[in-house]
Amino acid sequence: MLNILVCVKQVPDVDLVTMDPETGNLVREGVPSMLNPLDGNALEAAVRVKERYGGAVTVITMGPPAAESALRECLAVGADRAVLVTGRPFGGADTLSTSYVLEAAARMEGRFDLIFCGKESLDGATGQMGPQLAERFGATQITGSLLIDEVDIERGCITARRELEGGTAAVEAQLPCLLTVEKANFPARLPSLKGKMAAKRAQVKVYTENDIDGLDPKRIGVPGSGTVVPEIYPPKLPEPGQMIDEGGVEAGVSKLLELLSAAGAI
Amino acid sequence: MEKAKICLAVIDDAGAAAPLTALAGRLAGRVFVAAIDAPEAAVNAEKAWLISTGGAGAAAAVGAVTRLLEELAPELVITGAGRDSRMLAAHCAAALRTSALTDADELTPEPGAIAARRLVYGGGAYKSVRAAYPAVICAGPSLAGAAAEAAPCAVLEEIRASLPEGMELTGRAEKSVVKVGLGAAKIVLGLGRGVKDAANVERAAAFAARIGAELGCTRPVAEDEGLLPRERYIGVSGAVIKPALYIAAGISGQIQHMAGVNSSGVIIAINKDKQAAIFENCDYGVVGDMMEVLDALDEKLS
């Protein structure tokens, strides 16, 4: 039986995050949070493997207590177990300390044959978590997975197609293997009513900094991070310019002619 | 400015070699290059290792790059902006026990550390991130696509790399890659959802060719509608452009797109919706149907 882990993140709907023009602070209040969409694709890939070969899918996330709702979204579409790692000391973590904590917490849940990650998160978009976790787990790694061809449980290996800059490659990798998943072939399924009901009732296991064996407090949260973020500020956008809304297409065309000639195009 | 002692540029895309090695030279006293399946990347450095993976791709080079990190003990590592470059950056960061500064579009060296600026929240904000040496910079498209001189490297060493133990390449299919010169274009015509269909895209492309403009588009046009290849998509996580003239046609002006064009010299927007957000962020706004305007212009020019 395959033991499958999916690492997910709850993210704000970035389209709705705004910046307070006075303070320069991000206004996240009232902005809905959701399961990182690309993690939904990773979960879909994991659930398909489970459906084909049997096994159990565990989803894990590190975040504030409210991140539990992202885990329940996963439970509604095929995850069997959910683990929330939460606590103030974990806050402010970058990919270095987040990967450390996720691996340590996952170890509490046993050994995993397959680990799935989304390509990147909507908010941070660093794309670093998959490869960093592969190093932590000592797993083989297939980034940019387009298709999963086969899992050979007897031989303990997986074959998948991965995207290259100039084509695709078929790769066979021994388990444990970490896969990051491309979105195109793994559209997230919609939860059934039954799935939603079950997800509501399901138990989410919670680990705080005190519950994880061997956790080094110097390697978590801000102290455990390799990077610091001194500031976040709004980008400068061009100022509103001159509107050419009288004279219709004709006026627009002559302005374009003028600019094209200034740019040396005509 | 106090320079870092040693920088290793890890390059898997020949196009990014000149700008990133030149950048490495500004940031560090000694520059070395790990050129992965890209012998042309052996430039602007005192020594380059030509790593060939035999078609297995950048994943096969991780071991060789990690050994170079042990040998050189660089204070700085710079990688490109592509998908495999980001993977390489993550492995370098793991080996050096740090986190990579990804999508960096502006770098500020500090004593014993480096700060990078990047866009976050889909273009809604800039974040400055600082890392102490040893640090890993994963360049954003504006750094990786900048113009730079390239002096060939005199000292070369070849390395044959293969996938790590437990992994094997069992097949490979090539795909033609579209080379798009958006980063260096003087004039860019950007198409938004207003272009509607493939026939209109073709007309707009013919017009772009006539005025010597490179064709670009918004993310939905490339990814949702599939009207143009992904290589032509401009914006956060796509191409970042700085032409003298940017013509935004049928583009609503979402911040994700504008973040990729706001260094343009002059921006002129054509949109039939007078309320479109792009009219807040352009130099000239033309209210009208984009195809009507482009066709009328085309007629004037012929």
Topology:
The complex is a heterodimer of chains A (266) and B (302).
Chain A: E1 2-7, E2 10-12, E3 18-19, E4 26-27, E5 33-35, H1 37-53, E6 55-62, H2 68-75, E7 81-85, H3 95-107, E8 114-118, H4 129-137, E9 140-152, E10 157-164, E11 167-174, E12 177-181, H5 193-201, E13 204-207, E14 227-233, E15 242-244, H6 248-262
Parallel strand pairs in A: 1-6, 1-8, 6-7, 7-13, 8-12, 9-12
Antiparallel strand pairs in A: 2-5, 3-4, 9-10, 10-11
Chain B: E1 4-11, H1 14-27, E2 28-36, E3 47-52, H2 62-72, E4 76-79, H3 83-95, E5 101-104, E6 106-110, E7 113-120, E8 125-132, E9 135-139, H4 141-144, E10 156-160, E11 167-174, E12 187-191, H5 198-210, E13 214-217, H6 219-224, E14 245-249, H7 255-258, E15 266-271, E16 284-287, H8 290-301
Task: Describe the model.
- The complex is a heterodimer of chains A (266) and B (302).
- Chain A has six helices and 15 strands.
- Chain A has a single domain, classed as 3-Layer(aba) Sandwich (Rossmann fold).
- Chain A has helices at 37-53, 68-75, 95-107, 129-137, 193-201, 248-262, and strands spanning 2-7, 10-12, 18-19, 26-27, 33-35, 55-62, 81-85, 114-118, 140-152, 157-164, 167-174, 177-181, 204-207, 227-233, 242-244.
- Chain A is an alpha/beta fold and 266 residues long.
- Chain B has eight helices and 16 strands.
- In chain B, helix 2 (62-72) packs across helix 3 (83-95) and helix 5 packs parallel to helix 8 (290-301).
- The N and C termini of chain B lie far apart (54 Å).
- The mean pLDDT of chain B is 92.
- Chains A and B meet through strand 3, helix 3, helix 4, strand 9 and strand 10 of A and helix 3, strand 5, strand 7, strand 8 and strand 11 of B.
- Strand 15 of chain A pairs parallel with strand 16 (284-287) of chain B.
